[in-house]
Amino acid sequence: MSEGQPTDETLAVTPAPWRQRLQTDLRSKLIDGLGAAAILYLCMLTVAMMMRPVQNLSGSAGVLVYIVVLLAISIFCLERSLVTRWGERTRAWWGMAGGLLAWSVTMVSNDLGAVELISLPGITMLLMVGLIVSVLWRRVLPLGVRFYAFSYMLFWTGTMFLGIQNYFGQVSYLLKSVYWGNGILAAAGGLYMVYFILIKTTRRIPRLWGALWLCFFMITLQMIVRGGIL
Fold this sequence. Notes:
Elements: H1 8-13, H2 17-80, H3 88-112, H4 120-136, H5 143-169, H6 173-200, H7 204-226
Helix pairs in contact: 2-3, 2-7, 3-5, 3-7, 4-5, 5-6, 5-7, 6-7
């Protein structure tokens, strides 16, 4: 055998290139896709679970401190998502985490009555923020900020949509049925996101977008079935 040619033992040990790509691709789908969705979901549950013990132990003052801490961490994540020396995947992770923490701040404030999401001012604010983000999306906002803004807007829109339907569902059985039908749509959307992540995606960033949507559908389904995140 001439020098430089692989031996039979090397060929037997070294996996084929297509198998290496498949293993790497599958690992990314599990970590950047399904794993990311599970981490985001558990983080949101943890943040929601912490609010009641804080309120019982420290009252409104403790909840205010909790809100400030969450907001500070959210802004820190936003700043980290702008670090250009990091890869797109890392910046996207920071952006998603920061956006969901910012949404948690809004939800805690809503539960305290400091912010009324299901109201005319809340709807107006949502439309205004949505229009501003849509104008700045492609030309101004970097990737990390896109994930931050989209995470916040997605959960804000979903929560307001469910809140409005639940409100009108109290006076109409038909609208109440439509409200519960959203649970079926959320379950179907979650299953499609699993299919999208495992079958359709070929790059990490689309998998992270899919993970965010999967987390949204899981939280939405839980809010419909249980009447809230917890």
